[in-house]
Amino acid sequence: MLVLRPVQLGDLPQLQRLARESLVGVTSLPDDSERLRDKILDSRTSFEHDVFSPGPESYCFVLEDLATRCLVGCSEILATAGFSEPFYSLRNRHFNSASRELNIEHEVPALSVCHDLSAHTLLRGFHIDAALERTAFSELLSRARLLFIAAYPRRFADAVITEIVGYSSEDGHSPFWDAVGKHFFDLPYVEAERLCGLESRTFLAELLPQYPIYVPMLPQAAQDCIGSVHPDGQEAFDILAREGFETNSYVDLFDGGPTLFARTHGIRSIAESHTTVARPGSVIDARGRYLVSNDSLENYRAIVAELDYIAGQPLTLDASMCAALKVSEGSPIRLIAL
């Protein structure tokens, strides 16, 4: 059985393996033991502290195979994207220009550095082993974070965003970076992403031009990257699109990948999840497949399970499910259909 749980310090070697295997552009998963150790400690502190409003907290989760004790995925929530430092992105908006004399009017798209999204909750750090891609466990790894938000709404903002990795070639070549960022940094795309993971994106935003970048002046290959998704990032995009997330006018500083946005109360796994209590049992006449979580904080757990759920009644779970979720008779349970 696979279970999603908060990361522990003992997970560091396996978390670094996941970071090493993750897609270029997932800057919140640096392949650096000290940075990952700090991430784990920050996450543990966030789970342990009482929180009454969203702040700098980060909640890092891992997907563990209970049979092998091997980690097969990870994901994270940052309670406030720009709490400690501005969360920079590029705003893609149109500028109007007109000539009354010639009776000509134009709308010209332009990119401007901004930190408009700094107050939002950020989903990041999504990575799953290739063998589990496009399975129910990808849904678990991504959406169980949303069930956690549903259980602890005061810890998170009224809106949630995530950045989807933009296009780059198999050899790490990004047409968008080459046309924009590389003019201000003598760095290839992969190295710039690595530095952002080790430090922050502030250094990049500070050196990028503070005036609009007019999109029609960029090479066509770079224009085509704006808002496009890396093939290996499409699943992360699709899962959240089904949750009600939508693209907006913001794109990533490095590769032009899209930003997804949703109002917290409207996200499917938050708005439509059900709560009940656990009832241990030995026989389940399964009628559907569900994401199921406990409502614990430090001991948060979530699994995929075949269940017979009837609204308003306790939820029967077998012994293995109860053990994975760390629940007993009468424990609060949250679930949503896959």
What does this structure look like?
Helix 1 packs across helix 2 (33-48) and helix 3 (136-151) crosses helix 8. The chain is built from ten helices and 15 strands. The chain is α+β, with helices and mostly antiparallel strands. Helices cover 26% and strands 30% of the residues. The mean pLDDT is 91. The two termini are 17 Å apart. It folds into two domains: 2-91 and 113-269, Gcn5-related N-acetyltransferase (GNAT) (Aminopeptidase); 273-337, Barwin-like endoglucanases (Beta Barrel), CATH 2.40.40. A hairpin with a 6-residue loop joins strand 9 and strand 10. Strands 1-2-3-6-7-10-9-4-5-8 form a ten-stranded mixed β-sheet, sandwiched between helices. A five-stranded mixed β-sheet has the order 13-12-15-11-14.
CATH superfamily of the largest domain: Gcn5-related N-acetyltransferase (GNAT)
**CATH class term of the largest domain:** Alpha Beta
CATH topology of the largest domain: Aminopeptidase
- CATH architecture annotation name of the largest domain: 3-Layer(aba) Sandwich
Query: What is the mean pLDDT?
Result: 91
| Major sheet details | 10 strands, mixed
**Termini, distance in Å?**
17 Å
Number of strands: 15
Class from helix and strand fractions: alpha+beta
What ranges have pLDDT less than 50 throughout 5 or more consecutive residues? none
InterPro entries: Acyl_CoA_acyltransferase, Arg_succinylTrfase_AstA/AruG
GO molecular function: arginine N-succinyltransferase activity
Keywords: Acyltransferase, Arginine metabolism, Transferase
Protein name: Arginine N-succinyltransferase
